[in-house]
Each structure stands twice: as structure tokens, then as C-alpha cells.
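Lab notebook, bench 4. The sequencing result for the construct came back, and we need a structural model before the next group meeting so we can plan mutations. Quick request posted to the team channel:

Model the 3D structure of this chain.
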Amino acid sequence: MDYSSLKRFPPSHWQNNWAGLPFEGLAFEVLSLYISQAEIPPPSLKDIIHKSYSTFRVPSVTPMVTLDSDRRIQLLELSHGPTFAFKDVALQLLGNIFEFFLVRRNQNKVKTGEDREHLIVIRATSGDTRSAGIFGLRGKKDISIFIMYPTGRVSQMQEAQMTTVTDKNIHCLSVYGTFDDCQDLLKDLFADPSINIAQMLTSVNSINLSRILARITYYFASYLSLIPLGIFWPDSLRSECLPISKLIIATNENDVLHRFWQTGAYEKQGVHSASAEGFNVHVKGVKETLSPAMDILISSNFEQLLWFIAYDIYTSSVDGIQERRQIAALKVKEWQTSLKTKGGFCVEQKVLDAAKADFALERVSDAETLATIRDVYRWPNTSSPGPKGYVLDPHSAISMTAALQSAKTAPGIHNVALPTAHPVKFSHAVEMALAEEKEFQFKDILPSQFLGLERLPRRVIHVQRSSGLDGVRKI
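Done. Here's the predicted structure in C-alpha cell form:
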């Protein structure tokens, strides 16, 4: 997304008009700010939104649950979509937008043949983007999707949910390596000129604009459900758009982001030393944790944030928009090249200060993750999907741990945790955490959609990371 194209609008623009809107209506208002009517006419946009969110199991799409009213701890439930994961909110929308443009471009072309536009979607993932992307694109005409995931580093339920899809346009690639290996293959594919000349490639990565717009919608939904009309958090009035005091990034023990926010040094996990010549890094690699979707060292979203910051800091004296974009891009390329060749990079203090202005970081260990799952389950008077307490999956528990810490350091404000997936997908961690809870039985939280899933036939292609780009190209 281009930082220069972001629309910033004050609360007076939306506080009176958007309060009380259903999720689909709110999504239409947000998306209409960024999508030209010439590209998608309003009636078509409304149809796309309805088609996307009518697949969710609750009308509110992303309902808010209060777990502790005294400490103002809320959960914005994001796992009510077809695959029980937060990625559904964006990827249902993205799939329907892809389909809209392909149908329009191919409407006067023959049913088969080379003149029809065919989109190839490629995704590398360590989490629920796999199944959410598949369910958002399965069966859609003129679209093929290739999903790469690291072998043995996803939960059994996640892998079953993905590989049991039988639609012919879906291809699952199990790569022997880590998520970062999958990500490297993805970047190599998009950098390969021969592939890009022959094929129309795109991705459903988190940097895709449609996914970002979908996220904007549920942030507004959470705010409007909590804050009475016309009342805003006092320490947030500096915001030009949604008055959020601070966004907290919660990491697991793969804490490369947490270390960056502390020191301004971004390096792959390992023993390192910094010098005038650069970094000397002994890389230990990705640590396997109870929250596998977060077991990564290189974040695409972080690269995007660096671009935003570079655009603000290093181009303020430059007039031309294109030149400003180029300067920011070159700065990020400099950092990314150092990351790839030297294992890390350091930023100036002003860059770190800019990152800290809107974001805080919390690091959560596996032991803390299990403790939070257990503690929240024991809380009284919770809005519970189970027989007793609220059951969190390990990723959601990391978010909740950060929210609890925020409630201690900044009492009096609302702390909204974003639970990202249904706990059924991570049964091992949940059962570890709740092993001593006699009232808990996993079958009580098991959705009917998952019954027998692991016994269904599977379609999966195994890829050796050592074969590199050639191995993927041959598929």
C-alpha cells in the first residue's frame, strides 16, 4: 500500500454516520473511501461484501465479548468465518474481488483458450492463511491457488482442513523447511522474469490492499461497539483517524520484533554482535512453539511499516510524490539487503522512536501462554462457548496476555484482544493448559464442521527446499 494514498479522516467524518451500522454497512463505508466507483460500482461492491460476510456464522461477523468489565478486557472474536480463523474476514472479501474483475475481463472471451485471463495466486504461510485463502478461492473460475506451508510446523487440524479440499483449482505444497524458507520461495517466484512474463501472478499475503481494508473495518467495528457516541479516549486525540491509544504487537518466543522495539536492531534469532562493518550472526533458526503460526523471523508486515516510517522521516523535504516513494523504497531495500546478506540491520534512533509512537511490544513465552489459557478459563461470569470458562487458542492467549499487561500499566482504558482462531485447531496446547480442569472436555468445543476431517482423503504435493525455485516451477 502506498502511504501517500492513505486517506486520513477525523472522527467528525464518521462518528455520527457510522455508529450503529451493521458490519456489512460499515465495510461498505470503509471500502468506498478507497475503491473507485469506476473500478467497482457501489451496487457491485455491496454484492461483494454481502457475498463475503454472509458465509459467517454470526450476523455481527466480528462480535465483541467482555471478559472482565472491571479491567475493561474485551475480545474481538474474529474466528466466525468458514475456516474458524481471523483470516476469513479478509480472504473471503479478497476472493470475491478477484472473481469480480476476472468475470468482467473475460465476459466477451471464449470459454477456453489462451486469450482468457487466468490468475495464479501464490501464498506462503505458517498459519490460517492457508485454509482461509483456499476457502476464499476454491471453485472460482479462472483462478488457481498454490499454498506453500512448512512441513510438520502446522497443527494437524490446520493441515487436514487445507489438504482435504478437493477443488481442482487448489494446490497445497508442503515444503521441507521453515516458514521463512517458504517465504523465500515466494519472493523468488515474483522476482523471476520468465515466470512473470508467462503467468499472471498475485498473492494473498497480508500486504495485499484488500486484506488491509478488511482489517480496518473490524477495528472500526470494535471501537464503535465500545465507545459511546461522541466520547473518545483523552490521550488519543492526536490521531487523525481512529482514536486508538496504542497498538500492541504480541510475539511468542520467536521475538525478533520485540528485540527490535527494545534496541532498534532487527536480526534473525541468534547470538550476534554489531560493528561498524555490520552484523556477525550465528543463526539458531526458528524455535518451534505452542503458537506455530507465529514461528517466523521475517515479517512482511514489518517491512511495510518500515516503508511508512521511511516515507515520513527521509522524504519530508522532497516535493515530488514519486520521488518520495522511491527514496522510501530504496531505504527499505537497504535494510532488507542487510538482513538477507548479513543477518540483520540497525535503524537510526528517529526510526525507532517513530515505531514506538504508535506500537508497543509484549513477548509471551509458552509457559505464559498456557497459564493465560488456564487462567481465563477459570474466570467467573465469562461469555463462554464451553461448559464453564472461555477457551482460548494459544495465539489468542498471547494476545490476551498482552492485553492483561496493558491493563496493569494503563488502567482505565479499554483493552481489546484479538483472538485469531478457534481453539479446536490447536488441541495439543489447549489440552496441556486445561489438563487439570475436570469440567473441561475437548469434545464440548468441537464444531461439527471438524468431525471426521482428519480421516478424509488428502491432496498435497511435497517439495524439497533444497530444490529451490526449480522444484516449485516444475509443479
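The chain has a mean pLDDT of 82.
Will bring this to the meeting.
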